[in-house]
């Protein structure tokens, strides 16, 4: 590892978007934990079925309370995918920040557009399957 030389590649806008969603989700969980106010799921409201994201706010609130068992029961898929995505995003943002500050140049692997498309489809497919199975 060395000091960065030359211009620093910016962080992909999708990474910033996912980071914003994660931060916003934990902010909503904090509000839910403090006040009991949550955002109702439109699919659940209209059909009574749970979507793949139903329970995610309660799951994050349970994590804020340190209750991993409750978090697992509220939404296991997001409990598994969330930290994986969070670590990848956190590393990218920290590596970019250190390079931008001129302190340290960490490797920043880049996925090909094809790999991004495949990973996106796999994650969405897994969430879709989870959403169907949780309603049985």
Automatic annotation (TrEMBL):
Keywords: Membrane, Transmembrane, Transmembrane helix
UniProt organism field: Kribbella soli
Segments traversing the membrane: 15-34, 72-94, 115-133
Protein name: DUF2752 domain-containing protein
Pfam families: DUF2752
InterPro entries: DUF2752
